Amino acid sequence: METILGLCIGIGLSAACGFRVFVPLLVMSSAAIMGWFEPMKGFEWLAMPSVCIALAIATVFEVGAYYIPWVDNLLDTIATPAAMIAGTLTTMAVSTGEMSQFASWAAAIIVGGGTATAVQMGTVAARGVSTATTGGIANPLLSTGEWIGAFVLSILSLIVPVLMVIVVLLVAVWAVRWLRRKKQENMHRSAI
């Protein structure tokens, strides 16, 4: 049961990494320092105040950079692989000792890295549409929603992880259906 709970927390935190790379790590570090979260062996560094300060600085720069026109699109090229790595690390940091080291890393890479990458690719697509349709004017609004979403998702993933997995899955299903509907509408329009 601990393994499933750990994976649920990992999925929620990984999804948050897809929105902003450093926000979930900062939330985990803050929670570890306050004693609300105990990272797995090998990830005790998350509970170090200096790491928390460094993550806070990185978070401020990351969030701020997404408000600069065209830098936000450029930053997505770096954030995509970084989100995969952060999703893997966050999932591994909450994995339980019930699995072997190999199984833990495999689950972290597949579940955590995969979830973070999927969410990040969705934000890249949304920012691309926003840039193409509004010339980037709506991008700050999108960026605000992303960092707030990352923050809320990170906190709720630590508090109610199973609910967050359900929410992440429902949003994923909705997004896939919405994209399919848009694709069919575009195909229908081009046929006319």
UniProtKB/TrEMBL annotation:
The chain crosses the membrane at residues 12-33, 45-68, 74-95, 102-127, 147-179. Signal peptide: none annotated. Keywords: Membrane, Transmembrane, Transmembrane helix. InterPro entries: DUF4126 (IPR025196). Residues 7-181 form the DUF4126 domain. The keyword Protease does not apply. The keyword Isomerase does not apply. This is DUF4126 domain-containing protein.
